[in-house]
Amino acid sequence: MKIGILSDTHGSMASIRKVLATAPPVECWIHCGDYSMDANALHNMINQKVYAVSGNCDVMRGPVEVNPDCFLNMEGYKIWVTHGHLYMGETREINELAWWGQNLEQDIVIFGHTHVSVFKQVNGIWLLNPGSPSRPRGKNRGSFAVLTVNRGQMPAVEFIEV
Questions:
Q1: Across residues 56-70, what is the average pLDDT?
Q2: What is the set of domains in the chain, with CATH numbers?
Q3: How many C-beta neighbours within 10 Å does residue 10 have?
Q4: Which of 66, 81, 94, 122 ranks highest by number of CB atoms within 10 Å?
Q5: Where residue 139 falls among pLDDT bands split at 50, 70, 90?
Q6: Which one of the record's GO molecular function terms can you name (predicted)?
C-alpha cells in the first residue's frame, strides 16, 4: 500500500499542485497540518481519502475531519499522525515522538512541524516527517513522502523533491 504524505504547505496551492504532478499513484493521502485547510483543497483536487491533523497554525473547518491526532491501522501497522508541536516541545526534539509512540503502542509516527524530512527508527518506532513542499528549512529542498507499507514487510519511504 502506497500512501502520499505532505505537511506544512502553509496555503501554497502551487506546491500542492507540484506534489500531485510529481507523485506516483497512491491509495490515500495524509496531511500533517499547517494548514489543515490545504487538506480540504487536496481532497477537492483528487477526490481520494485524505487524513489530516491540525498544526500550530491551523483553524479547522471544511469537509476533511481535522483533530490534533489521527490513529490509523494500515496493512497491520499502527500509525499515529500528528503535527508534532504538542509532543516535541520548543526544542523540536523528534526523539520525544518515539517515546510517545511507544506509550501509545504505535509502529509508525508521521509528523510535520520541523519542515525537515526524516525517516528513522528510534527505540523500535519509525519516525517519518515528509518535510515541507513550500517552506523547507535548512539545506533541504521542498519535499513530500510516499510511504509503502505491506503486511509483514519493513516500511519503506521515498522522499520526492518539488
A1: 76
A2: 2-161 (3.60.21.10)
A3: 16
A4: 81
A5: confident
A6: metal ion binding
